[in-house]
């Protein structure tokens, strides 16, 4: 319902804008039929964007879906339109958890869920905490704001490869600090292979992701009237009460979008694990994006890889829809 | 308003044009044409210390070719890590270069795509004949019984490189010839923070190269005659276990080597931290790391017993780079001329000398420049005791599946977890089950 109302009102609005605009242009362009002038021009102007969107997103997606129903291996990639249809075979292989391919996909799905939970949770937490801490004006705030955004500004490849060097067992900075200087471990740990890999991945992901949360929350904070804090302070509210009762509720719409975006980016993150671990990630950090890449481009089973991609797309669509539904209900409740 | 309408029209036209040009692909051209006879695009694999170095080496040669034929070659040096993906993308879209380098272990996989020009008798005759090339190099350019999918360009083989000073300090007079000797020497060398042997545990290809050779020595091929994977055969399991045991049981490889994938084992060797390394043509890398030629020696890779030869005495895979032509090239004659130029005696001598590899062209190989002791080892290995990796269409899956299994076993060994025949077999079993075709 909400969506319908929004669409209608926006259409009305754009119609009004259009009529004003075309009203002024009537004398100069008498040949444009009224029908187009009044209703069609916005659509005509949108057409290039729609075509490009089709080209960049929709058509590849449709091709991907078609591929998932074909037996597409190296024997057919030179003429992939001629690959034999395989029905739901690729999907059966992908979801058969009793066979190694399905079992490995399920494993990577769980790894990705755990990774996303911690990476998004911590990035959000650090971003919000930093934004709130920098809310008050103080000497050096500008400098700190700039410094905090550095991870966001750095090229992903350069940043992650630096982390890979730091995580090296024998010569890396991480073990130098944890083992040599602080003596926290009995012996230098492996971070890029074995069970610790997931921790390394989460650390890099959080480092890379929290400045975005910081930026968005900082923008959100600008919209909270200072009077609310002043009034609550007069009423005796402490800083924690202000955060709980004023800041977080006011940030709610911002946070809803922020968490959704961070979730989608993190769940699909390919660059971080690929640069950190190469094309064969350790089992403990075998994210689904790398797993699908490996199925498609490393083992050349493009059909199975496409089926896995479609399943991932469906999962993310369902989660996103459920999230939007729940948060919009919550918002309606709050508005009421 | 007129401006808006014009802008909309232009944008629309661009969108449609982009749509038309962007939707090409799935080409199935039968054998090239000569529609564009004056230019060629060449994807060279990164052979030298850097992409810039490769450009510097190749550009004057391409100029020579242009002067001779009037054909301008557009060069792109592609890093190894990207090359296979780039080739796959080019194969799928039909928008690739005219001539390209491929790793010879990918030959059969890429041959199966049907995108590369097959080198039948006529095509070989156009570049001077098949007989000009060393047999083992041609054998590694495609599946047995089929016309090769590429022409050998640079040949490589594995050797055992050893640090002369470390050996002298440990009282070892000559490099090991058998694995037992290597382990015994390695134990003498592994002390005071130094180690006997280096490995690249997280490098999937290197894992495959080493375990394939050990597999040959244990009588295992990893594929049967019908092309079906046999990763869990007793010989294959024993080969993989023997390799991991250098770290897990014999303790002659540093645990940190389990995460190496960027040639760190060569750096360790150059710094004197490890005394031996199994590598292909490492001379230029050692020189770049400050080692003098007299600091190191090269010997044939050890075998189980006796001397290197064929079958159970195989001590290297046939490594190397081949030159392929995309079937849908618009300059088929020019592409063949370019392959002929790059495989000519003069260019073979020059390029292989620069890259420290061995020419796969017999007449060039006989040149004195390839008689240095280390190159002689590589040359003899190629001629007498090297075997090509399985030339099956799913070779690249094999590299990934078994290479990853070995990587995980290295991680187990490095973490001190037991590596047993059962655990090796279980990893290989899993690898085999992921092979779909």
UniProtKB/TrEMBL annotation, chain A:
Residues 1-27 are annotated as: Disordered. This is Carbohydrate ABC transporter membrane protein 1 (CUT1 family). The chain crosses the membrane at residues 41-69, 109-134, 146-166, 198-221, 250-267, 306-326. Belongs to the binding-protein-dependent transport system permease family. Keywords: Cell membrane, Membrane, Transmembrane, Transmembrane helix, Transport. It is a multi-pass membrane protein. It is found in: Cell membrane. The lineage of its organism: Bacteria, Bacillati, Actinomycetota, Actinomycetes, Kitasatosporales. Pfam families: BPD_transp_1. One of its GO terms (cellular component) is plasma membrane. GO terms for biological process: transmembrane transport. Residues 109-323 form the ABC transmembrane type-1 domain. InterPro entries: ABC_transporter_permease (IPR051393), MetI-like (IPR000515), MetI-like_sf (IPR035906).
From TrEMBL, chain B:
It comes from the Bacteria. Residues 1-22 form the signal peptide. Pfam families: SBP_bac_1. This is Carbohydrate ABC transporter substrate-binding protein (CUT1 family). InterPro entries: Bact_solute-bd_prot1, SBP. Keywords: Signal. The lineage of its organism: Bacteria, Bacillati, Actinomycetota, Actinomycetes, Kitasatosporales. PANTHER family: ARABINOSE-BINDING PROTEIN-RELATED, DIACETYLCHITOBIOSE BINDING PROTEIN DASA.
């Amino acid at each position: 319902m909400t969506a319908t109302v929004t669409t209608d009102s926006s259409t009305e609005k754009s119609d009004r804008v259009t009529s004003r605009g075309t009203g002024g242009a009537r004398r100069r362009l008498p040949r444009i039929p009224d029908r187009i002038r009044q209703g069609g021009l916005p659509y005509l102007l949108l057409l290039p964007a729609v075509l490009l969107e089709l080209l960049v997103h929709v058509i590849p997606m449709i091709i991907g879906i078609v591929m998932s129903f074909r037996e597409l291996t190296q024997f057919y990639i030179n003429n992939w339109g001629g690959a034999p249809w395989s029905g739901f075979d690729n999907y059966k292989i992908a979801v058969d958890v009793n066979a190694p391919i399905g079992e490995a996909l399920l494993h990577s799905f769980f790894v990705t869920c755990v990774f996303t939970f911690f990476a998004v949770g911590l990035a959000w937490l650090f971003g919000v905490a930093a934004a709130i801490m920098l809310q008050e004006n103080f000497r050096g705030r500008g400098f700190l704001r700039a410094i905090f955004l550095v991870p966001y500004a750095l090229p992903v490849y350069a940043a992650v490869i630096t982390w890979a060097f730091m995580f090296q067992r024998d010569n890396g900075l991480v073990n130098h600090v944890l083992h040599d200087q602080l003596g926290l471990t009995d012996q230098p740990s492996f971070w890029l292979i074995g069970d610790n890999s997931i921790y390394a991945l989460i650390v890099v992901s959080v480092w890379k992701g929290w400045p975005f949360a910081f930026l968005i929350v900082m923008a959100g904070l600008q919209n909270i009237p200072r009077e609310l804090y002043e009034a609550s302070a007069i009423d005796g509210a402490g800083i924690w009460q202000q955060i709980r009762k004023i800041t977080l509720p006011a940030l709610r719409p911002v946070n809803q979008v922020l968490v959704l975006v961070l979730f989608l980016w993190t769940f699909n993150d390919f660059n971080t694990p690929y640069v950190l671990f190469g094309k064969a990630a350790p089992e403990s950090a075998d994210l689904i994006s790398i797993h699908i890449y490996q199925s498609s481009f490393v083992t050349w089973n493009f059909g199975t890889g496409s089926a896995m991609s479609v399943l991932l797309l469906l999962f993310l669509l369902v989660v996103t829809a459920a999230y939007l539904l729940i948060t919009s209900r919550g918002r309606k409740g709050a508005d009421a | 308003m007129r401006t808006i309408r014009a802008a909309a029209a232009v944008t629309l036209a661009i969108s449609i044009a982009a749509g038309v040009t962007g939707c090409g692909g799935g080409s199935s051209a039968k054998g090239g044409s000569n529609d564009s006879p004056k230019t060629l695009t060449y994807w060279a694999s990164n052979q030298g210390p850097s992409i810039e170095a490769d450009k510097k080496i190749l550009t004057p040669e391409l100029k020579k070719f242009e002067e001779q034929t009037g054909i301008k070659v557009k060069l792109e040096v592609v890093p190894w890590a990207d090359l296979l993906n780039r080739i796959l993308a080019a194969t799928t879209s039909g928008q690739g270069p005219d001539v390209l380098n491929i790793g010879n272990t990918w030959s059969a996989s890429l041959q199966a795509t049907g995108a590369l020009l097959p080198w039948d008798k006529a095509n070989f005759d156009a570049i001077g004949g098949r007989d000009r090339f060393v047999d083992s190099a041609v054998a590694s350019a495609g599946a047995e019984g089929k016309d090769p999918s590429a022409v050998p360009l640079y040949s490589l083989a594995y050797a055992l490189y050893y640090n002369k000073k470390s050996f002298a300090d440990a009282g070892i007079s000559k490099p090991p010839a058998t694995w037992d000797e290597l382990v015994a020497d390695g134990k003498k060398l592994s002390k005071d923070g130094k180690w006997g042997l280096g490995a690249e545990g997280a490098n999937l290809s290197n894992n495959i190269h080493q375990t394939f050779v050990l597999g040959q020595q244990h009588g295992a091929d990893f594929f049967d005659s019908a092309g079906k994977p046999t990763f869990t055969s007793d010989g294959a399991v024993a080969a993989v276990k023997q390799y991991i045991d250098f770290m897990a049981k014999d303790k002659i490889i540093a645990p940190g080597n389990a995460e190496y994938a960027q040639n760190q084992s060569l750096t360790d060797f150059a710094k004197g931290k490890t005394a031996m390394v199994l590598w292909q043509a490492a001379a230029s890398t050692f020189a770049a790391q400050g080692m003098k030629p007299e600091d190191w020696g090269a010997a044939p890779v050890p075998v189980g017993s006796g001397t290197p030869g064929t079958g159970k005495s195989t001590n290297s895979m046939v490594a190397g780079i081949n030159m392929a032509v995309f079937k849908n090239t618009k300059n088929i004659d020019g592409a063949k001329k370019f392959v002929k130029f790059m495989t000519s005696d003069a260019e073979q001598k020059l390029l292989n000398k620069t890259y420290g590899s061995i020419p796969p062209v017999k007449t060039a190989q006989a040149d004195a420049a390839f008689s240095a002791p280390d190159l002689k080892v590589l040359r003899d290995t190629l001629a007498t005791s090297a075997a090509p990796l399985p030339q099956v269409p799913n070779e690249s899956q094999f590299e990934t599946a078994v290479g990853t299994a070995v990587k995980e076993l290295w991680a187990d060994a490095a973490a001190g977890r037991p590596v047993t025949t059962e655990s090796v077999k279980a990893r290989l079993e899993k690898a085999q089950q992921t092979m779909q075709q």
